[in-house]
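Incident log, entry 3
Record: Succinate--CoA ligase [ADP-forming] subunit alpha (292 residues)
Problem: checksum mismatch between cached and fresh output.
Input:
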Amino acid sequence: MSIFLTENSKVIVQGITGSEGRKHTQRMLASGTAVVGGVNPSKAGQTVDFDGTSVPVFGSVAEAMKETGADVTVVFVPPKFAKGAVVEAVDAGIGLCVVITEGIPVHDSTEFWAYAQGKSTRIIGPNCPGLISPGRSNAGIIPADITQAGKIGLVSKSGTLTYQMMYELRDIGFSTAIGIGGDPVIGTTHIDALQAFQDDPETEAIVMIGEIGGDAEERAADFIKANVTKPVVGYVAGFTAPEGKTMGHAGAIVSGSAGTAQAKKEALEAAGVKVGKTPSETARLMRELLGA
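Fresh output:
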């Protein structure tokens, strides 16, 4: 199985006519994703051609869902329009909204996150690579050819570390790999993904990649200790980061001892998670756990 994204997922792309939307729609189609439409209010009624596959453009998410049965949207909309795009997707009641856009003001992210609470739309991101269920579907910008379907679940704050871990464990493969994004406010957390992997009968083990800043990893450690029975290995990026400096992601800010890589490592190990010092060591720990 897979979580959040399956072979039956029907995907639309908000911003399909822009350069990023067009490029990554091509890649999603090439990996077998059922991209059934795009959304651009100013180009409704047109089609976009991708190597012989014509994808219709609709004026709204609601219209696209009505005409295609779409249940996933991927947002490649510029930052200043992203809040409106996500609110539109939530209003339409689509099941999954994957926000790839980076540089969205935290105030906007906070607004659309709050707006989605209690409604039927799960948000992944923003500022994330999306998610992939190898061999089934790919919603976002994750390379589809670096791994295969398998029994590991992966949840990560970092896009590039997601790709590295997928490649290092490519011979074992993944049920689903999710990049949740590194902004201070995100729609789907480590804990959300851990619960879904715990509930998925075909996910046998979990890799969790975190990074400095905030307390998400510490909260995830508490959750693992109380709720997760499957083996978990972890990696925390940022052991050499200077105190008080933002490193890469907007959420990666350390204050004093709070949010340091060492504090996160200790919290995870106290919950029974094996934590690698490097991504390669983390992959080796997973191989040892699985006897692979």
